[in-house]
Amino acid sequence: MPIIEFTAGQLSPEVKKQLIKELTDISVKITGIPKHLFFITINEKPDEDIAVGGLSVKEIKENLKSK
């Protein structure tokens, strides 16, 4: 059974629902594996736990707000 893991910052319930649907649909289309065999996990991380270029996403958002 295929497993798709998606890691991101905080997501709304609507976005998670759309991700689950569209990741499943495109995976079925590409692989031909039946929809009911796919497992999808969404791993949400707080902004303090994700960094780009040496700054946390929280810091990046704060810097953008102050500009």
Could you walk me through the main structural features you see in this protein, from its secondary elements to its overall organization?
Helix content is 42%, strand content 24%. The chain has two helices and four strands, in the order βαβββα. A two-stranded parallel ribbon has the order 1-2. It has a two-stranded antiparallel ribbon with strand order 3-4. The chain starts with a strand and ends with a helix. The mean pLDDT is 96.
CATH superfamily: Macrophage Migration Inhibitory Factor
User: What series of H and E elements makes up the topology?
Assistant: EHEEEH
**Strand runs, count:** 4
SSE class: alpha+beta
Helix % is 40-55%
Low-pLDDT stretches: none
Q: What would you call the shape?
A: elongated
Strand order of the largest sheet: 1-2
Binned strand content: 15-25%
CATH architecture name: 2-Layer Sandwich
Oligomer: single chain
| Text of the CATH class | Alpha Beta
Q: What is the residue-mean pLDDT, rounded to a whole number?
A: 96
**First-residue to last-residue Cα separation:** 47 Å
CATH topology tier name: Macrophage Migration Inhibitory Factor
Number of H- or I-type helical stretches: 2
Task: Compute the CA-based radius of gyration.
Answer: 16 Å
What's the number of structural domains?
A: 1
**What kind of sheet is the major sheet?**
2 strands, parallel
Protein name: Tautomerase family protein
Keywords: Isomerase
GO molecular function, one term: isomerase activity
Pfam family, one: Tautomerase
Task: Spell out the key features of this protein.
67 residues, alpha+beta, two-stranded parallel ribbon, two-stranded antiparallel sheet, isomerase activity, Tautomerase family protein
